[in-house]
Amino acid sequence: MKVVNAVMPQPEQAMAFFGGQEDGPFVMVNLLKFKPKADYADGADAHLTGAQAYARYGEEVRKLVEGLGGKVRFSGDVTGLLLGEVEDLWDMVALAEYPSLAAFRQMALSSEMQAIEHHRKAGLAGQLNIRTKSAEGF
Known about the structure:
This protein has about 140 residues and is α+β, with helices and mostly antiparallel strands. It has a single domain (about 10-130), classed as Alpha-Beta Plaits. Helices cover about 35% and strands about 25% of the residues.
């Protein structure tokens, strides 16, 4: 299995994701890898770690998610790996529930999101975003 962390999706990847069929609420699994030091384009806040820069983003994005009727279900540090193998373990996992793909798209393209993206870019070395749907019977 090939695993490639990224900070931003490729245009064709984003188009395919947002062009998918609307099927109601979903949970986005975010596997996050932070930079050792924050890397703001303007050189600001160089004393911060990547995790601290991302925390600024996370605090504001939580408000955006909740404003859409969604909820951040969980966020926590990765503390170990029981099964499987990866070259470099992620630093944090976050689970965010969205009411719909349209709501997620609205948030992703909003001016509010644009205003906080610099914290995300300053802190993240890469991530995986995995859209999940509740399975019947579980």
